[in-house]
Amino acid sequence: MQFDQILQYTLSGLSTGAIYALIGIGFSIIYNATGIINFAQGEFVMLGGLLTLSCLDLLKLPLWAAIPCAVAVSTVVGILFERLAIRPLRHPTPINLVIITIGGSILIRGLAMLVWGKDTHTIPAFSGDAPIAIGGATILPQHIWILAITLIIIMVNKVYFYHTISGKAMRACSYNRRAAGLVGIDVKRMVLFSFIISSAMGSIAGIIVAPLTMTAYDVGVMLGLKGFCAAIIGGMSSGISTVIGGLILGVLESLGAGLISSGYKDAIAFIILLLILFIRPQGLFGKADSERV
Amino acid sequence: MKRDLLLFTAFSLFIMVAPQIFAGGYLMNVLVFVGINTMLAIALNLLLGYAGQISLGHAGFFGLGAYLSGILTTTYSLNPWLAMPIAACVVGSLAYLIGLPVLKLKGHYLAMATLGLGIIIYIVFNETVDLTGGPSGLSGIPNLHVAGITFDSDVKNYYLIWGVTLAVMLFSLNLAGSRVGRALRAVHDSEVAAQVLGVDARGLKVQIFALSAIISSLAGSLYAHTMTFISPASFGFNFSIELLTMVVIGGLGSIYGSFLGAALLTLLPEILRGANDYDIIIYGALLMVMVMFMPGGLVRGVPALFRKVFSRKAEGGHA
């Protein structure tokens, strides 16, 4: 009984953790390319879910077409954000960047509230709601979708960063932006690329999680913060450490909510965040292990 | 120095006669909130504008002050005048202890840590139902009273709040102009350089963080006693952002700027009636526009704009 419960919480924690990992990698990619923590990262997660909803309801698209459509639109918002808010800043201080990305996130969230209202919306699960039994626990097909899609995205990322020219150029930027510029890498373009990749990844995270948790104009705040928490645990790497960070966070949160108190569920993530920042600001696995991409 | 004193006297006089001009009705109530928000904006500005350390959790300290005062005076029927300094001491010590590890962090990390702190405090307000009344709030907080006067009307509250706000302003102006103020600005520009010159940067940052929390707590206590009802919704993440917007719009590192930002952002929703929930969009846009085009805030940006316009006119005249 007790074991089954723990298994259940762990399994559902793993799928939430995968979402945090995707969002966290989005944070890390932008941070490594630009030195910016993009406080608007969570808003792309929200946009992904809500845009899918609009594609389904208003444009009457089938799900397989609605998803790429929503990702494309969120990515355009990401590009606009980089072009209009980040690029025009000439000598930004970290505090100014914090303020401007917060401003951007409030603006995007406010506009979303105008468009979709304050209600919570549901998106149908990708392949039905029939529960699947694993040991004494049950999971939904959507959980498997989440884990599978996360795995695919992480693999695509790996291939991009290690086996393509622009991926390698982005890694060069993360090691040393000036040196990268000197060998002919267009750093500004790489910055734009980083926003494109992470807004696309954020929106995918938002789409695959929406059937489980429902979505609304303000889901981006918490999901974004927890994604950041995952990235911090992983030492701001865009590789496997952040994935592990997300999974640890998801499982701890789920166990904490189930076994201690569901009211303090969100507090658990932030307490972990503070502890990591105080004790190991370089992340759980130290700098040596993490790939800074 | 003399000019500063003159400016402050003029400002105080303006504040004191303002009720005669805008007398009566709903506006008085709004002006009370301008006072409370000015105090909070100054508190955040001391930290952000002078010492250069961001906090996205100041609504938490504001809320702690309000809740401590509220709980001590209702559940434990303590005298409000006694509860207020107790609340300030508790919040100040808490901020000092938390500040020791938190202020080691810089920039983005500091922003995230203080944000997390604010959210944890907010969750605690909601979850400790026995103590705080949870999401439905805490009511029946007594008004302040002294020597037979009970501060229960908007006009009385106006003078009470603004009396304290002016004291906080005077204190902050003096602090900014003092040795400590100069040390803070040195830390802002370069922590290493400040340390080389003998400034205890780390100690100073933690002290100013605690001071900022104490002022916020004081504002919170006064808020609780004027409203007589508090609920967690007033102390959430959005309010921390609103405070940040006030400081940035008014001008980082300017005490009068904080008043300007607080006044603008408190009056704005009243002017934009009907836009009720959508004012958050305007905050977002304002934050971005200010950082991009007027990073010095209104106090510096507007005079600069005037100079630009007039010098262009003058040039035109010569040609």
Q: How would you describe this protein?
A:
Chain A contains twelve helices and two strands, in the order H-H-H-H-E-E-H-H-H-H-H-H-H-H. With 293 residues, chain A is mainly α. Chain A has one domain. A two-stranded antiparallel ribbon of chain A has the order 1-2. In chain A, helix 5 packs across helix 6 and helix 6 crosses helix 8. Chain B has 319 residues and is mainly α. Chain B contains 14 helices and four strands. Chain B has a two-stranded antiparallel sheet. In chain B, strands 2-3 form a two-stranded antiparallel ribbon. Chain B is globular, with a radius of gyration of 20 Å. At the A-B interface, helix 4, helix 9 and helix 11 of A face helix 5, helix 11 and helix 13 of B.
| Cross-sheet strand order for the largest sheet of chain B | 1-4
Structural class of chain A: mainly alpha
Q: Could you say which overall geometry of chain B the principal axes of the C-alpha atoms support? A: globular
Number of helices of chain B: 14
Helical content band of chain A:
over 70%
Strand content of chain B: under 5%
CATH-derived architecture of chain B: Orthogonal Bundle
CATH C-level class of chain B: Mainly Alpha
Count of DSSP-assigned helices of chain A: 12
Mean pLDDT of chain A: 87
Biggest interface and residues each: A-B, 43 and 41 residues
Mean pLDDT of chain B, rounded to whole units?
85
Using the CA coordinates, give the radius of gyration of chain A.
19 Å
The structural domain count of chain A equals 1
Order of helices and strands of chain B: HHHHHHEEEHHHHEHHHH
Cα-to-Cα separation, first versus last residue of chain B: 40 Å
Largest sheet of chain A: 2 strands, antiparallel
- Give me the Rg of chain B, rounded: 20 Å
Number of strands of chain B: 4
How far from one another are the termini of chain A?
Answer: 43 Å
